[in-house]
Amino acid sequence: MVWARTKLVLYDNIFDEGERDILTNYSGKHPEKLYYKLKEIFLDVFNVPRNKIQEMHYNWEKKGDSDSIDVRWRIIKDMDMYSYIRFDVSFKVKSTAGEGTASIRLKPRFITEYPQDTLIQQSIFYEMARRFWHNTFYQKQRIKWFHLGKELSARFDDAVKQYMDGLRQHG
């Protein structure tokens, strides 16, 4: 991630127009257990350090035997100093007496940031050189990382579904 006041940001959705996010729903026993499992899945699938997983919003309400959970995480997978994959995950649960529903939405985004702080970085000559380098060399690497983002998103979805199947069978 580039730490600059001014930057050029290339922001790409990992999936096409019609399917920008992955939505997974669960209905069955103990959907609240997914909260703890998701944290493990983040570390296993995305292979990022704990400090790259930020809990952006947390709300867990318990009234009697009912639970209502609304949590959002942001996972940043750095690829190099300019590019990273950002996974935004939202998790919602409604359950009563150990039975309920859960919804997990994964929004994968691929982001490249070029700094534009100095006069040199803001000049037309720098921009021409940066564009030449980007189009000739860097774009090929970005495409590989873009496909990695798709693969990691699919692995995340598979791991979540596998755990959900286990919850349905064993509770």
Describe this entry's structure for a reader.
The structure is a single chain. It is built from 2 helices and 6 strands, in the order ββαββββα. Strands 1, 2, 3, 4, 5 and 6 form a 6-stranded antiparallel β-sheet that branches. The protein is 35% helix and 41% strand. It has helices spanning 34-46, 124-170, and strands at residues 7-13, 22-29, 53-63, 66-78, 83-96, 99-115. It is elongated. The protein is an alpha+beta fold and 171 residues long.
| pLDDT averaged residue by residue | 91
Report the biggest beta sheet as strand number plus sense, adding barrel if it closes: 6 strands, antiparallel
Helix content: 25-40%
As residue ranges, the low-confidence spans are none
What is the gyration radius calculated from CA atoms?
20 Å
Structural class label = alpha+beta
The N- and C-terminal alpha carbons lie at a distance of 41 Å
What's the helix-strand series? EEHEEEEH
Total beta strands: 6
Fraction in beta strands:
35-45%
Q: What is the overall silhouette?
A: elongated
- Number of H/I helices: 2
Quick summary:
This protein has 171 residues and is α+β, with helices and mostly antiparallel strands. The chain has helices spanning 34-46, 124-170, and strands spanning 7-13, 22-29, 53-63, 66-78, 83-96, 99-115.
SSE blueprint:
Elements: E1 7-13, E2 22-29, H1 34-46, E3 53-63, E4 66-78, E5 83-96, E6 99-115, H2 124-170
Antiparallel strand pairs: 1-6, 2-6, 3-4, 4-5, 5-6
Helix pairs in contact: 1-2
